[in-house]
Design a protein that fits this description.
The structure holds 2 protein chains of 2 kinds.
Chain A lengths: L4 E3 L2 E5 L4 E6 L4 E9 L6 E6 L5 E4 L2 E5 L5 E6 L8 E9 L6 E3 L3 E6 L1
Parallel strand pairs in A: 2-11
Antiparallel strand pairs in A: 1-3, 3-8, 4-5, 4-9, 6-7, 7-8, 9-10, 9-11
Chain B lengths: L3 E4 L2 E4 L5 E7 L5 E7 L5 E9 L2 E4 L6 E3 L9 E3 L8 E8 L10 E2 L3 E5 L1
Parallel strand pairs in B: 2-11
Antiparallel strand pairs in B: 1-3, 3-8, 4-5, 4-9, 5-6, 7-8, 9-10, 9-11
Classes of the chains: A mainly beta, B mainly beta.
Chain lengths: 112, 115
């Protein structure tokens, strides 16, 4: 079953605003990944995080691997219309044989 | 490179029919996997393979079979389709290695409807 809680489920924001989403779990993660999925396409990797406390940026995107290893957040600064899509967190936990588990996704809609 | 390709893009089946979803990658990746995506549930792992000749079950393997006879191809077989298998199916691949193994490349998906 689902081992990641991703929130919010959806967001509707004004262009130019900053966006924040997060994933939490009761399990300890070895790796956190953030993907974006455009309509009709497969997910594309945005940021990969490999150790607790790690903070990584990719353009206007910033993600952090939580110190407790049970959570991660993704921030998008100054959102633009092409940020529309579904954002997924994913991670690897030892108790699941290090296979990748995904959150349910955050649907981002930008109002221009 | 074409990356990860999947065929067909759309498919409608009747209950009880069988079919194979094709997946191929031209990046010489060792690791390949199949996921299904259902509304509100993210992606769930069906089966995966760490190399040619090696496959293993994921979170939701029932009703599906896989094989990996070559590095490039990883077909997913539905043995007897059921309406519960209506979903979008994604194939993914990644290179071997401690860190790059995490960076999976996804195909465009196959949208399957079982009536």
């Amino acid at each position: 079953g689902q081992q990641l809680n991703q929130s919010p489920q959806s967001m509707f924001i004004q262009e130019g605003e900053d966006v924040s989403m997060n994933c939490t779990s009761s399990s300890i993660f070895n790796t956190w990944l953030w993907y974006k999925q455009d309509p009709g396409e497969g997910p594309v990797l945005l940021i990969a995080l490999y150790k607790a406390g790690e903070l990584t940026s990719n353009g206007r995107l910033t993600a952090q691997f939580g110190i407790t290893r049970k959570d991660s957040f993704l921030n998008i600064s100054a959102s633009i219309p092409s940020d529309v899509g579904i954002y997924f967190c994913a991670g690897r936990i030892m108790e699941y044989g290090n296979k990748l588990v995904f959150g349910a996704g955050t649907i981002l809609r930008v109002k221009s | 490179n074409a990356g990860v390709t999947q065929t067909p893009k759309f498919q409608v089946l009747k209950t009880g029919q069988s079919m194979t979803l094709q997946c191929a990658q031209d990046m010489n990746h060792e690791y390949m996997s199949w996921y299904r995506q259902d509304p509100g549930m993210g992606l769930r792992l069906i089966h995966y393979s760490v190399g040619a000749g090696i496959t293993d079950q994921g979170e939701v393997p029932n009703g599906y079979n896989v094989s990996r006879s070559t590095t490039e191809d990883f077909p997913l077989r539905l043995l007897s389709a059921a309406p519960s298998q209506t979903s979008v199916y994604f194939c993914a691949s990644s290179p071997s290695g401690t860190l790059s193994y995490n960076e999976q490349f996804f195909g465009p998906g196959t949208r399957l409807t079982v009536l």
